[in-house]
Design goal:
heterodimer; A: alpha+beta; Rossmann fold; Dna Ligase, domain 1; 3 domains; 13 strands; 37% helix; 25% strand; globular; B: mainly beta; 5 strands
Chain lengths: 288, 59
């Protein structure tokens, strides 16, 4: 098969994928999205003859439009623009999970500092304020007091981009010092790990330590339901352990897996390329 | 053992070692300055300072 890989930075994740594709003699066209122009009427020549496009853009803003462009050219794309649109936005993400009946932290959105303060007081302290878009645990705030809330809200409303004036406020989940990341393809878990840290943000990008996690039946059910809620694809689904079981706090659509690959015995690039091969073969059968 | 090769750090002008199997678009950390450098050409190897982190980067 011929895979087009959209990128602007080759991380270790992309390198693992490229090596796996090349070892299987698949043709790969690396597409540096910083150098291309995307015409609304016709695809750029670099996409000639590709069977599928794999979006590995680091920048969400590019990922959102590019998946839409590729889809409009009738070229299969991982992940779909619909999935990208939901996963890239924490509000859409939370709504999709809630609508699908997937256990997810209680969340409120407010548009003014006064209204945000009311929402914060309704949760009590601590609670959590997150940017609507963003990743790697950036700009997340655990609010421990009224004075901290007032300061953070004032900063966001004064200094922030207009998106920071959409206040996404969430209950603080008193989890153990870890959360769970499951990488799944169309709802089927490939591998999972716990991410442990003494910091309340247990993100691998923030230095959390990774250990393999055995997916149990309840986690599998939640992963399948969360994947379906956002439209499926290759996803990183994040869960926290609670007294009642689990809660899904986020689904990521351009999932990084290097830390997971090092923590588990399963080869993530092998499993991902297996899945892409099946996807392309199935697509060809459908169109034959 | 990762095979290494030498090239010039564009920021410091010093000769540095980087993995021999780098790809265009890959980021290497400069052992001379600690800065992130992007591989922009392979033959010959050419590096330039990598773009700074943007707010919408992530997964």
């Amino acid at each position: 098969m011929h895979v087009g890989l959209l990128y602007s930075r080759i991380r270790q994740d992309e390198k693992l994928l490229l090596n796996e594709l090349r070892e299987r003699d698949h043709e790969v066209t690396k597409i540096d999205v910083r150098k291309e122009q995307f015409d609304t009427a016709r695809p750029p020549a670099i996409l000639d003859d590709v069977d599928i496009v794999f979006d590995r853009c680091l920048a969400t803003s590019r990922s959102l439009y590019l998946t839409k462009f590729i889809d409009s050219y009738d070229i299969p794309v991982i992940n779909s623009p619909e999935t990208a649109a939901i996963c890239a936005d924490k509000i859409k993400n939370s709504l999709a999970l809630e609508d699908a009946g997937v256990t997810t932290p209680e969340t409120k959105v407010a548009y003014t500092t006064d209204s945000a303060m009311t929402a914060i007081e309704s949760f009590g302290y601590p609670c959590v304020l997150k940017p609507v878009t963003g990743s790697w645990g950036r700009l997340m705030a655990k609010i421990d007091s009224q004075s901290a809330a007032e300061a953070i809200l004032e900063h966001k409303s004064t200094l922030g981009h207009y998106e920071h004036k959409v206040f996404y406020i969430q209950e603080f989940v008193d989890k153990p010092d870890r959360d769970i990341r499951v990488v799944a393809a169309d709802g089927n878990p490939i591998a999972a790990m716990t991410r442990s840290s003494e910091h309340w943000v247990t993100n691998a990008a923030k230095g959390a330590t990774a250990e393999a996690f055995e997916v149990n039946q309840r986690v599998r059910q939640l992963v399948t339901a969360a994947s379906s809620a956002v439209g499926g694809g290759l996803l990183g689904i994040d869960l926290m352990e609670t007294a009642e079981g689990y809660t899904v706090h986020e689904v990521n659509h351009t999932v990084e897996f290097k830390a997971l690959n090092e923590a588990v015995s399963v080869s993530l690039p092998t499993a991902v390329v297996d899945w892409i091969e099946t996807k392309v073969e199935t697509g060809k059968e459908v169109h034959a | 053992m990762v095979e290494m090769m030498t090239t010039e750090d564009p920021l410091s002008g010093e000769e540095i070692e980087i993995p021999a199997d780098v790809e265009i678009g890959e980021i290497v950390d400069s052992p001379a300055t600690g800065a992130e450098l992007e591989v922009i050409a392979i033959d010959p190897i050419t590096l330039e300072e990598a773009p700074e982190l943007e707010e919408d980067w992530g997964e």
